[in-house]
Specification:
Helix content: 40-55%
Shape: globular
Largest sheet: 9 strands, mixed
Number of helices: 12
Oligomer: single chain
Structural class: alpha/beta
């Protein structure tokens, strides 16, 4: 028996079979109420979700879209009385037994607002990009600073801090966790299987756009909570600008003074070697270093959008 009524919010757009697997895994978990928030799908996702008996909330796509806005709309559609909310992305399926473990942990730890577990890729061997993402999900267990889009959260804590910030194009989960921690709550990661994710990244262009989106999220987060003592995303933004913009610009400008200053570009392979020695994975080290270029572009895109006052929009990578 679950200690408290638990609801679920799934969000997605054109997820196809992945959405069906997601909703089926939620139904199998015996949750009280399931809401699917659709963001302009054209693949029959709404009809498929309705056929599975879940509540469907179609977003008005004439307004700026963000995943944060979608999740907030899902919470608004829940009936009263639920104590916990399982958030999940529509390209993920819930692991059997996760809800009982996570809910039990929250029941035993009243200071914890949100608990997450291990998210894995369903096909890490299908592409180098899927493997890199699977490694990305493997973060330390125990008390954490943030969670991702798959998380079991106390509804009272979520509402106390005002939910997700709908203005954020990406990085809305760590930003919410900043406000939760500032309100005195804890975030925790369990050593338990939580969800299976289908990134379906098979092309370099997809990886590049995903990295650019990450840079945009770093810049947004730093703009909101970059001041001391939080310093949220400041280091990530600085690294993106130094390695993705500073090194190549310094090399190009230096070469105007003397051709040998192009050797500044050797800082990249040296950084790759350093990361490879640290992690024992030269491929990952290469992509971590190369990824600073699109991340820097994402930072610059955010700052340009901030200056011009443009609203949020989704940066696609699939």
């Amino acid at each position: 028996m679950m200690p408290d009524p638990i609801d679920a919010i799934a969000i997605g757009r054109n997820e196809g079979a992945r959405l069906l697997a997601c909703l089926d895994s939620l139904r199998a978990a015996g949750l009280r109420h399931i809401v699917y928030v659709d963001s302009g799908s054209t693949d029959g996702s709404i009809a498929a979700a309705e056929a599975r008996g879940v509540t469907v909330v179609p977003l008005d796509m004439t307004l700026p879209f963000t995943a944060a806005r979608a999740r907030n709309a899902g919470v608004a559609a829940l009936p009263e009385g639920g104590a916990l909310i399982q958030f999940i992305d529509g390209d993920c399926s819930l692991a059997s037994g996760w809800i009982d473990k996570a809910a039990g942990f929250l029941a035993a730890n009243p200071a914890v607002a949100a608990v997450c577990g291990r998210r894995r890729e369903i096909a890490p061997e299908a592409s180098i990009y899927n493997r890199l993402i699977d490694r990305e999900w493997d973060t330390p267990v125990g008390q954490a600073r943030s969670c991702g889009g798959d998380v079991l959260m106390r509804r009272a804590a979520f509402e106390e801090v005002g939910g997700f910030d709908p203005r954020l194009i990406a990085g809305e989960e760590p930003e919410l966790c900043v406000r939760l921690r500032q309100a005195g709550w804890l975030i925790w990661r369990l050593d338990a299987e939580m969800t299976r994710h289908d990134a379906a990244l098979y092309r370099f262009g997809q990886w590049w756009r995903r990295s650019r989106r990450a840079g945009h999220a770093y810049a947004e987060g730093a703009a909101l909570h970059g001041a001391p003592p939080e310093r949220h995303n400041v280091a990530q933004t600085r690294r993106a600008l130094i390695w993705g913009l500073g090194v190549p610009v310094a090399a190009i400008l230096g070469a105007l003074l003397h051709p040998l200053l192009l050797l500044i570009l050797l800082l990249w392979p040296l950084q790759i070697a350093r990361l490879a020695l640290r992690d024992g994975d030269p491929v990952r080290a290469t992509f971590l270093t190369l990824g600073k270029i699109p991340e820097a572009l994402g930072v610059l895109e955010y700052r340009l959008r901030h200056l011009t006052g443009q609203g949020g929009r989704l940066i696609e990578y699939k």
